[in-house]
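Throughout our pipeline, every protein is held as a single compact record rather than as scattered files. Nothing more is needed to write down the fold, since each code stands for a local backbone conformation. The record that follows is passed on verbatim for readers who wish to inspect the format.
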Amino acid sequence: MKIWLRNIVLIAVGTAVLAAFYGASYQAVEAKIDARRFPQQGKSVDIGGYKLNLNCAGQGTPTVVLESGFGMLSLSWGPVQSGIAKFARVCSYDRAGYGWSDSSPLPRTGAQIAKELHALLENAGEKPPYVLVGHSFGGLIVRIFNGDYPDGVAAIVLVESSHPDLLKLLPPAIKKESDAAQTEREAATRLAGIRSWFGITRFENRDIIDAPGLPYGERVATYLDIQPKYLDAIANEGANLETTSEQAGASPAFGDKPLIVLTAGQGVLGVPVQDKDWAELQNIWINKLQLQLAQLSTRSKRIMVPDSDHMIPVERPDAVISAVREVCAALQSSR
């Protein structure tokens, strides 16, 4: 090899090693600063070799348990949780890999998630019966949890809950979009570890995380969202969505447990109705799937929330709080 070519190669390798060293150092320093800047909201509870983050407030029975939607952190329940805490005990948590929770070595199926939630509540000393509140994907988990631990569930609130048959009823164009999004999540997960280790992801998001003028919630959510364990968790949940839907569909109905189904009136699954495919899905969602959810109990009510889209817990937390209060009152009156 000519001397000049060897020198170029040595310079390129040296530059790459130096950049990697500084990137890894930057990541290590900023990770420690971020951990102090954004302290854990809740406590870590061991469920058998790994820990989940649980955040509870308020007093009384039954305890209200909040199950988040796909990709949503426990932080998303903030206004809902503070409102419920005024009249009941209420707990939010981060699923494995989310927020301040450890990753789980087990597949992210609904049955496994329900099992982990049960262990979390039991190990934390939170006593049943529970009022389960499930948003979107979390509605599937609620159904599985009720089927696996029926004696521990007193009432249910489904907030824009997904339905076991949703994947089967997606119009072809939307199914194609959904599959493409899952492929992108899996690809992002493969790159996330490398990018995070060398500080690339942290550097790209510095304008949000390091900006004291921005809302604290936006900064902490960004800090938690860029962690590789989070990307891995949502990719794994997405890859197991069909299995989770089947598990939820095989779970028994709720009997005579109080049930309220909250359905948004704007858009469908967070997407404005922009063409015939989405209009078709909106009709299926509102007039078929959501009504079927209300038939899961003989003591149920479906309530439309016309001024909200899929994110009812964020846009209309008062609607969720009111529904929880109503099912709690129904439990009191039946004693």
